[in-house]
What does this fold into?
Amino acid sequence: MRDRFGEAWDLLFHPPIAHRGLWSPDGAPENSLSAFQAACAAGYGIELDVQLSADGEAVVFHDATLERMTGQTGRVRDRSAADLAELRLKGSDEKIPTLLEVLAIVGHRAMVHVELKTPPGEVGPLERRVHEVIADHNGPLAVIGFNAYSHAWFADHYPGVLRGLDSYAYADQPKLSAEQRRSYSQLEHVAIARPHFLALGLDMLPSPRAAELRAQGMPIVAWTVRDPAQWDAVKAGCDNLIFEGFRA
It folds into this structure.
């Protein structure tokens, strides 16, 4: 894999990855340009979230709705990128950035993990726009996300893009059957996604199945680690961490 992905492969293992940038409740908001600048300055990798605006732009925002981070009502996907750019994050002067804007300021300074918030049954539009943006990016980058079919889309259309499948135990998903939860917890959807690495929630680590895949050469990144003790408990079976709330 090192021969195929070069520096991006090395940066899967070090440095640690700042979850939604290096943000804090009394500082830069999550998924803001300032949070990404802070992560670069501190020497960390960056994890961020992308979804489509109403006019098809890849914007960097986690939640499906605007309330928590902007105080506004409604869904991100129902507003244009220009309208979203007029909003401010958590009472700060920070706007909702586009993926293009984030990559422009990050450049080659940090490995960026782009989490695709692809809704079920809607694979394609977000993936296409993200690839249009990342195709010209000159820094190390991977696409990540929970939708196995999103990963399969990249594997089929752009296999040269480094891909990491997000997963967790799915115990808090009442809409899933017991068999579906078991399948996810056993990482059976890896066969659909065909990822190069896994980003696994702390609720499923350590994982015997993940250990098997790791032994076969698939790195494991733990998320979201919120204190050093959590990392100490799982790091023997992992290769890196996505963290927030402390300096990893």
